Amino acid sequence: MNKDSLAVVMPVYNEEGAISKVIEKWSNSLKALNIDYQIHAYNDGSKDNTSLILHKLSDSSDNKLTVHDKINSGHGPTILQAYRENADKYEWIFQIDSDDEMGPDNFNILWEHRNDYDFLIGRRDGRVQPLPRKIVSFISRLSVNLFYGKSIWDVNSPYRLMRSAKFREIYSKIPQNTFAPNVIISGCLGKMKLKYYEYPVPYQDRQTGEVSIKKWKILKVSLKSFIQTIKFSMTQSWTF
Questions:
Q1: How many Å apart are CA 23 and CA 39, to the nearest integer?
Q2: Can you give the C-alpha Rg of the chain in angstroms?
Q3: Please, which of 125, 128, 166, 198 could form a disulfide with 118 given CB 3.0 to 4.6 Å?
Q4: In what order do the strands lie in the sheet with 65-70?
Q5: How far apart are CA 183 and CA 141, in angstroms?
Q6: How much is the pTM?
């Protein structure tokens, strides 16, 4: 494992309208920072042309883009799989979504602070949420604060840089079917007394595609996430 090696893990589902631009933007930014990086795009059973586009991009990426085609399992299980498969190969893991809602312009700030922290996250700045998602965010934050202790504000932000050595065991212990593993990981910061850094990163609503969970249906899955988050906290010895 090379010092400061970075795996950028990106779950992708039906993003044919945005994925080319997203990969290009991140690739250019990471190259400009002279980082030893590899982008790992996890195609979660997309039904459009996402897989075809990704493989074409991979062919012209100078081996900097690896495409993982998989059966659809949802966002949470996909990123958990990505964490597990790359934690032993890279010193750092950075997770970003493929919808272009948070760009690479501020990633350099997290990267510059990495030596002083175990976990660095971009808090979604300027995000305007409909009521159901506001409720979900509140419930997620509440579950972390009540059952894990003090942690970051934006507990489910998909803009997180993690020191692999500190999280490998956590990744392996979180059940594979967990709906929102990032919430649990955010909670673990408090339980494990890890050093973290939170920085506001501009957020914009997606310009292409559509959200996979809509309106009030998200409240149903948020209840599932709430239960899973509490259960994980209650079943661990916290002797990592």
A1: 8
A2: 17
A3: 166
A4: 65-70, 37-44, 6-12, 92-96, 159-163, 119-125, 196-202
A5: 8
A6: 0.94
For 68, the enclosing helix (H) or strand (E) is strand 65-70
Tokens 């419930």 found at: 139
Contact of 170 with 66, CB cutoff 8 Å: no
Instruction: Give the list of residues 6+ apart from residue 167 with CB closer than 8 angstroms, or none.
Output: 83, 87, 93, 119, 185, 188
Digit-coded pLDDT (tens) for 31-68: 999 999 999 999 999 999 999 999 999 999 899 999 99
Tokens of 184: 């649990």
CA 103 to CA 224: how far, in whole Å?
29
Class of domain 6-234: alpha beta
Task: For the chain, give every domain's residue range.
Answer: 6-234
Using CA atoms, how far residue 122 sits from 46, 57, 66, 103, 107, in Å, is: 27, 26, 24, 10, 8
What's the token pair of residue 227?
A: 């239960």
96 forms bridges with which residues in the sheet? 159
Closest of 137, 135, 103, 95 to residue 9, by C-alpha: 95
Q: Give yes or no for a contact between 40 and 48, defined as CB atoms under 8 angstroms apart.
A: no
203-206, Cβ contacts within 8 angstroms, sequence gap of 24 or more = 203/101, 203/102, 203/124, 203/125, 203/126, 203/127, 204/100, 204/101, 204/126, 205/101, 205/128, 206/18, 206/99, 206/100, 206/101
Q: Is the pLDDT of residue 22 over 70?
A: yes
Query: How many residues does this entry show for the chain?
Result: 240
Instruction: Work out the average pLDDT over 73-77.
Output: 96
Strand extents, DSSP E, 92-195: 92-96, 119-125, 159-163
